[in-house]
């Protein structure tokens, strides 16, 4: 059931964002089959990178999904790139399978594999190479980064804006915080289009099993930085993507926000995420439903 009032109106306004989101997945066994079974071909799938698996796993999954007809956006974690030659090989491999859009975070590798110790340094090198990708995304942090101060993340976004095509916001479960953050970056003069990060209807038990399979050090790093996520996922009534989206909808669809879409963090629970999205769209599109009329305005 979809509740009424402002919540109902918020969901109605978010319909266009729900129709063509980005789906984030980790490169892992079985994920290619899950994506092809549940996500329609032609949609955007982003593939993460981690110190535990390295960039090769990201590149391999990108090639597989691109071959299946998806618009694939690999994560090029700067701190996993060894040197200029390694970057040139990565670029050749990605452009060879039709990739024209990459997402560039700094990454968590400590120490870095080479001279690229920040997203900015990798973005600058890509610019020197003639900008081989038509679109390049960077990270935004509505909440404080667990290991980086707010002043640094704000300055980094400002420095990177001239080399990027869009921003993807990291997860945040508080609609008021997201609204304030969007207003702040626009007030600073950052005009890049924004994809707002939204976690799907994640089951904490499955997420913990997935983290355990990632390896002890990688899982410990993830859990240490995202303990609040697990608490919210496991508390009855603690998190609902539908509730968060309903409260965010109007703020995300105002022209001043320049929100281009949603970035769905699936945590590899692809079936659950896509079934939730399709079911919600079906409810919002029922003939004769006032909510459908609001969405069409």
Provide tags for this entry.
297 residues; alpha/beta; eight-stranded parallel sheet; 14 helices; 8 strands; 49% helix; globular
3D structure, described in words:
The model is unreliable at 214-220 and 290-297 (pLDDT under 50). The relative contact order is 0.17. It is built from 14 helices and eight strands. α3 links the parallel β1 (22-25) and β2 (44-47). It has an eight-stranded parallel β-sheet with strand order 3-2-1-8-7-6-5-4. 49% of the residues lie in helices and 13% in strands. With 297 residues, it is an alpha/beta fold. α1 crosses α14 (290-296). It has helices at residues 5-13, 15-19, 31-38, 54-67, 84-96, 119-128, 150-160, 175-187, 204-213, 216-225, 227-234, 241-253, 270-284, 290-296; strands spanning 22-25, 44-47, 71-74, 101-103, 135-140, 166-169, 194-199, 259-265.
